[in-house]
C-alpha cells in the first residue's frame, strides 16, 4: 500500500512522519505525516511550534529535546526567543569535528565507563556560521566515546558527538544525561505505534488516506495514555497495548438472563472486575468534570 509513496533516503519507498511527544505525560502533542523523500531536518519548526501551542496553559516551563533533524537554525532561534530550554544533537560538520579534536586532553571529563568504552565530555567554544553575530552564543558540549577494547577489525579511534543547548546554568554531565533520556521517550512511542497499534501497516496507496490513518493511531495512543494514567490502577500505568488487550479489552464473559435480570459470568477474579468498575467510575468523573468546567 505504498504506491504513491516517495523513495526515502535509504532507497525504499515509504513515509517519514514527524512526532512530538510530551515526555512527562507520554502524550503526542503534534504529528506530521510526510513523504519518504522529505527529510526530518526540513522545517521541524512548524511541528515544534504546534507542539508548544498545544500544551495546556497551566504549563509554565517548557523544554525541548531533539536529534540532529532538529538542528535547524530557525528552530534554534525560535526556542531561544521563546525562552524554551533545549538540547539538540548537532550536525557533526568538519568545523565542529575539528573543534572537538582540538580540545586538550586535560579538558575532557569522564562521564561514565561502560566497560567496553569510556565516555568523556568537554565544553566547546564553537559558533556555527549561520548563527547571528549579535545573538547570545549557544552552548556546545562534545561527547567522546573511546573504545577500551578493540573488537576484531575495529578501530580504536574515538568517536565524537556534540549537543547544542541554551541551558547555560546546568552542569554538563547533567545536561548530557538529560538529553539522552529522549531516546527512551520517542523510540517507545514509535515502537508502540508501529508494532502494537496500526501505524506500521498503511491501509492505502493514497497519501491523504495514510495520513489520516497515522493520525488515528496517534489519537489512539493518547487515549490509551489517558486511560492508563487517569482511570486504571497503578500496576497498569506503563502497560503496553498488548497487555491492555489481554487484561482489559478482551475480557471474556457470558451474558445470561434470569428472571428478567441481565448478568455476566466471567472467569476474571473479583479484584480485576473491581478494577474495571473503578476505572469506569474514574472515566465518568472525568466526563462530568469537563461538563461542569
Q: What's the main sheet like?
A: 6 strands, mixed
The assigned structural class equals alpha+beta
In terms of DSSP E residues, the strand content is 15-25%
The overall average pLDDT, rounded, is 87
| Total DSSP helices | 8
**Number of beta strands:** 12
Series of secondary-structure elements, N-terminal to C-terminal: EEEEHEHEHEEEEHHHHEEH
Distance between the termini: 44 Å
Oligomeric form: single chain
Question: What do these coordinates show?
Answer:
The protein has 293 residues and is α+β, with helices and mostly antiparallel strands. It is 36% helix and 22% strand. The protein has 3 domains: 1-62 and 183-233, no CATH class; 68-181, no CATH class; 251-293. It has helices at residues 44-53, 73-81, 94-101, 172-180, 183-196, 207-230, 241-249, 270-292, and strands at residues 6-7, 13-14, 18-22, 27-32, 63-66, 85-89, 109-113, 117-124, 139-147, 159-165, 254-258, 261-265. The longest helix is centred in the C-terminal third of the chain and has 24 residues, at 207-230. 20% of the residues are buried. The mean pLDDT is 87.
